[in-house]
UniProtKB/TrEMBL annotation, chain A:
The lineage of its organism: Eukaryota, Metazoa, Chordata, Craniata, Vertebrata. This is Eukaryotic translation elongation factor 1 epsilon-1. Residues 48-167 form the GST C-terminal domain. It is found in: Cytoplasm; Nucleus. Positive modulator of ATM response to DNA damage. InterPro entries: AIMP3/p18_C (IPR053837), Arc1-like_N (IPR053836), EEF1E1 (IPR042450), Glutathione-S-Trfase_C-like (IPR010987), Glutathione-S-Trfase_C_sf (IPR036282). Its main location: cytoplasm. PROSITE patterns: GST_CTER (PS50405). The gene is Eef1e1.
Automatic annotation (TrEMBL), chain B:
The lineage of its organism: Eukaryota, Metazoa, Chordata, Craniata, Vertebrata. Residues 83-114 are annotated as: Disordered. Residues 102-129 form the Elongation factor 1 beta central acidic region eukaryote domain. The gene is Eef1b. This is Elongation factor 1-beta. Signal peptide: none annotated.
Amino acid sequence: GPEELALLERLLGLPKGNKYGVQGERKVPVLQTNNGPGLTGLMTIAAHLVKQAKKEQLLGRTAEEKAVVQQWLEYRVTRVDGGSSKEDTRLVLKDLNIHLEDKVYLAGNMFTLADILMYYGLHRVMVDLTVQEKEKYLNVSRWFNHIQHYPGVRQHLSNVVFIKNRLYTNAH
Amino acid sequence: MGFGDLKSPAGLRVLNEFLADRSYIEGYVPSQADIVVFEAIAAPPPADLYHALRWYNHIKSYEKQKASLPGVKKALGKYGPADVEDTTGAATDSKDDDDIDLFGSDDEEESEEAKKLREERLAQYESKKSKKPAVVAKSSILLDVKPWDDETDMAKLEECVRSIQADGLVWGSSKLVPVGYGIKKLQIQCVVEDDKVGTDMLEERITAFEDYVQSMDVAAFNKI
C-alpha cells in the first residue's frame, strides 16, 4: 500500500512530496498528480517511481528480463496480496521456493523491483513462519535473508531471523 | 574451514550444503571470496547439487567484473563451513562460525581485520571497566518519627534524631507532618550505604530517645 511506496521512494533516493491515497475496498494505492485523476495501482506507481529516480535497470535490462520482472510484480499483486488464506500463502511459498532454486534474484542474476516489492509483500508472511517452515522453504528463506540485507531495502521493517544450522533436515 | 577437495564430489557436496541458505560465499554481495571458490572449481557442479549450480551460474555472470568485486582474496581454506577440515594445507582458522545464532547477527563471517579490531576493543573495554571504582550501593530512606503527644518538643526531637551519627549515614531534609489531634510527626530523609547502615539500626537508635520518640516507621525506601 502507500506505506510501501514511501519505503520505495526512500530506497530510490527520491525526495518526499508525493501524495498517496487509497481507493476502494481493496485499498489500491493512488498517486495524486498535479493534473488529472492520478496514477492507480501498486505496480504502476512503483514502476513510475523507478523511472522518476532514473533507475530503470531495476525494471530489467533485456526484453526477457523486463517481462520476468513484470510477471513477478503481477504475481505479487494478484497472488500475494490477493490471496489471504493459509492455503494461498502456502502455494505462494511453494511456487517461489521452486522458482528460486536456481536463482539468486527473482529475475535471475540482477536485483530488480520484483525483489523489492516481493520482499515488502512477503514480510508479514515471513515474520510469522516457524523455524521448520523457514527450512521447508529454504530457497525463499535464503532469498529473503539476502534481500533484507540489501542496502536501503529493510529500513524500519523488522529483521526476520534465519538460523544458520539446519535443525530439521540433514541432507538435501 | 574450506570445503575439502573442491575437485572431488565430496568437496562439491560440502559447497552445496554451505550454499543452501546463502547467496554468496561471504556476506550478501558478490566478492573476491566467490571468485576464489569459483576458480577452484573445475566445471559447473552437477544438476543434483542445485544450490552450488545456482551459485556457480550467478557468479559466472559476474565474470567480466571479477577484478572489481569487493574484498581481498584469501586462501581457499579460509572460506566455507567452520567444521570442515581444511585440506588445502593453509593455516586453519579455529573459530567456530557455525554456532546456532539465535539473534541472527548481520555478519556471517568476520574478516580477520574485523575480528582483530573487535578483540582490541574488547580488551580496551575490559581494562577500562576494571579501573572504575566499585559502585557503592546506597539507598534513600524516608523515616516517620512519631512523638508521644502534641506537647512533645519537635525541635528537640529532630535534634536528637540528627545527632545519630554513623559511617555511611547522611541526614537530609525534614518536615513536620500533622497526623491529627494536634500531633505532628517528623518526616526526615537520609541516605545510607547499604553495607554499613540498616533500618534496624536506625530504628534502635531513634527509639532510644524514649522521652521524645514513641515510634519510628519507614515511610519510603528507594535504592539509588
